[in-house]
Amino acid sequence: MVEPTFSFRGSYASIAFMGTATRRLATWGALAVGIGMIVIFAMPSYRQGEASITGTPAKDFPLELSGKSLHLSDLRGKIVVLDFWASWCPPCVQEAPSLNRLQKYIESRNALVLGVAADEDPYAFSKFIIDQGVTFPTYRDPATKERGSPIALSYGTSVIPEAYIIDRHGKIARKVIGPQEWDSADMRAYFDALLGQN
């Protein structure tokens, strides 16, 4: 009788050891997967600036500025900071003053900030422009439904604020995700370099 008990305990210890080894293997496997995901998302194509879209043509769309109908393509020859925002978006409110300052910094150098608002309500849009003292050209996408601007969606933007910096040839130079300090030293240096290019 003693022998079966010992054998049972030995088998149990062996099973327990195998369970610990399996748990360790699973833990290390999960850690490896986690590290792999971090490496993948740290690659340039996933980082801010999205290298994967750099150099692609900016999607053209009709708009109206100061009562004049035009297309984005009519702005070729200028650097355009195409900023998607809305009056109901707190981070958009937060970054509006720095976009105003960026507009002032770049406007004399053949560049502009162009806002496209995902506002269904024209009154809310107009109130935002006045309350925030917006000085950069801005267009309210009239086809906006349920806080989604078809123009923004055509660019792949579903969460705002988000901006696309378009070079003088009408190609995307950079995608910028989330609110920014648009007139920070780093941003000014970036725009100085971009504005210095032909």
Main beta sheet strand tally, sense and closure: 5 strands, mixed
Determine the N-to-C terminus distance: 92 Å
Rough outline? globular
Task: Count up the helices.
Answer: 5
Low-confidence stretches: 1-8, 11-15, 39-47
Describe this structure in words.
The chain is α/β, with parallel strands linked by helices and about 200 residues long. The protein has 2 domains: about 1-40; about 50-195, Glutaredoxin (3-Layer(aba) Sandwich). Helices cover about 40% and strands about 20% of the residues. The protein has helices at about 1-40, 90-105, 120-130, 150-155, 185-195; strands at about 60-65, 70, 80-85, 110-115, 140, 160-165, 170-175. The strands form 2 sheets. A 5-stranded mixed beta sheet has the order 5-4-3-6-7, with helices on one face. It has a two-stranded antiparallel sheet with strand order 1-2. Strand 1 (about 60-65) and strand 2 form a beta hairpin. The longest helix is centred in the N-terminal third of the chain and has 41 residues, at about 1-40. The protein is globular, with a radius of gyration of 26 Å. The termini are far apart.
Keywords:
198 residues; Glutaredoxin; 2 domains
Helices and strands in order:
Blueprint: H1 2-42, E1 62-65, E2 68-71, E3 79-85, H2 90-106, E4 111-117, H3 122-131, E5 138-140, H4 150-154, E6 162-166, E7 172-177, H5 185-195
What would you say about this model in short?
With 198 residues, the protein is of the alpha/beta class. The protein has helices at residues 2-42, 90-106, 122-131, 150-154, 185-195; strands at residues 62-65, 68-71, 79-85, 111-117, 138-140, 162-166, 172-177.
